[in-house]
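TA notes, week 10

Several of you asked for a full example with nothing omitted. So below is the full record: structure tokens for the whole chain, then the designed sequence directly under it. When grading your own attempts, check the secondary structure regions first.
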């Protein structure tokens, strides 16, 4: 009997630290269920609404660098790497309390209509600046890249960093892309009539946003943006309507946000509302006018039944009539108006709405279905209800990291359809 007890104790001592969740302690910290009971309410989850890296599409299947701890007889803790299969099938567990930085890597073939076949990769990491704070959600960082047969090569780094004290957050996105693309024009009328031509665009974008909670779930944000775009070659320069082949813009913005979402990459409950104004002064840009942009967003997330979430998104972005092509709104892509080629319709302003059902099917696998509509237009006088375009589609989800999904969508639009491969939810 004594031998059986000794064997049982030895087996229990080899159970991974992260498998003993709420009843275990991280070395040097208090138990999770009693952490930070006397701290203020947590900072609501915030959103970074930059779009550059959101269109970088990579598909993969993942591994994780998780390690497990064993407790030998001498009391010293050693680390042992888990097996490939354990990292593959358990990579969605939350290890941010027992690891300083929980990172996973994925690499596989990819395909999009814009980029053709290629190889895509993703490194996704979660971490906590304060691992004694069980109420604050983990910070995240992603590095994405893709190279394709069409000549596309792109790399982007983005993430959200929550500071200790749970009152502020820094969001950032840096992207570089060389993209052979199609162009129909730079306003709705031209895009509706012109045949597609080929052009190659090189773009660099840096977007940094800092938000501070001023009261409860109300946040004040400031943003700095630098973007550079250059058309290397184009079949027909007249499609640019006399505008320059390259521009550089520096933007400075301020926003007011209400945010009660539970997690940015994959919200499951809450409300997000944002109003933002960004100025592009002429003295720090390569354009002879100071431009202004207004962005409005209203999103909701509600549980409807077991594993089912209804997500809604209303989005509008508005620019002046003298806006150059680099800052004009592009309908389509991987987030809003899925199913349309990114940039199939371009103009100064955009309005769109969508409703999506997200359903967990089995363990780490889920599915979605959505429907919506939207359009681009030159100004409010030029808005035409007849130009409203539909979007609808279905998708599959795989939880690659803890609440970080790799998604495959197939979207439909007016006389168009296509696959979208990406990481994180569309909104």
């Amino acid at each position: 009997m004594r031998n059986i007890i000794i064997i049982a104790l030895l087996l229990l001592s080899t159970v991974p630290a992260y498998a003993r969740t709420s009843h275990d302690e991280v070395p040097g910290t208090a138990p999770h269920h009693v952490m930070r009971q006397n701290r203020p309410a947590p900072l609501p989850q915030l959103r970074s609404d930059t779009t550059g890296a959101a269109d970088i599409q990579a598909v993969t299947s993942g591994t994780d660098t998780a390690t497990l701890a064993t407790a030998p007889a001498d009391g010293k803790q050693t680390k042992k790497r888990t097996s490939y299969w354990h990292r593959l099938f358990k990579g969605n567990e939350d290890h941010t309390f027992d690891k300083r930085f929980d990172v996973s890597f994925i690499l596989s073939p990819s395909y999009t209509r814009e980029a053709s076949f290629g190889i895509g990769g993703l490194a996704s990491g979660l971490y906590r600046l304060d691992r004694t704070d069980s109420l604050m959600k983990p910070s995240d960082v992603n590095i994405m890249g893709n190279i394709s047969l069409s000549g596309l090569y792109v790399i982007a780094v983005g993430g959200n960093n929550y500071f200790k004290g749970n009152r502020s957050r820094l969001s950032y996105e840096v992207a570089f892309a060389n993209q052979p693309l199609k162009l129909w024009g730079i306003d709705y009328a031209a895009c509706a009539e012109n045949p597609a031509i080929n052009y190659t665009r090189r773009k660099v974008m840096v977007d940094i946003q800092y938000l501070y909670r001023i009261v409860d779930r109300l946040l004040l944000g400031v943003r700095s943006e630098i973007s550079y775009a250059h058309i290397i070659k184009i079949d027909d320069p007249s499609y640019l309507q006399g505008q320059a082949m390259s521009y550089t813009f520096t933007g400075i913005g301020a926003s007011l946000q209400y945010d009660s979402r539970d997690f940015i990459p994959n919200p499951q409950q809450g409300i997000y509302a944002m109003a933002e104004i960004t100025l592009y002064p002429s003295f720090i840009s390569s354009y002879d006018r100071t431009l202004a942009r207004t962005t409005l967003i209203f999103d909701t997330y509600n549980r409807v039944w077991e594993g089912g979430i209804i997500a809604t998104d209303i989005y509008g972005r508005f620019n002046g009539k003298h806006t150059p092509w680099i800052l004009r709104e592009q309908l389509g892509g991987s987030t809003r108006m899925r199913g349309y080629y990114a940039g199939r319709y371009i103009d100064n302003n955009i309005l769109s709405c969508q409703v999506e059902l997200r359903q967990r099917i089995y363990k780490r696998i889920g599915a979605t279905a959505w429907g919506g509509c939207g359009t681009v237009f030159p100004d409010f006088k030029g808005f035409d209800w007849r130009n409203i375009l539909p979007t609808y589609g279905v998708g599959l989800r795989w939880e690659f990291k803890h609440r970080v999904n790799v998604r495959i969508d197939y979207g439909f639009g007016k006389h168009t359809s296509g696959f979208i491969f990406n990481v994180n939810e569309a909104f």
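Confidence is low (pLDDT under 50) at residues 1-80. Use that as a sanity check on your answer.
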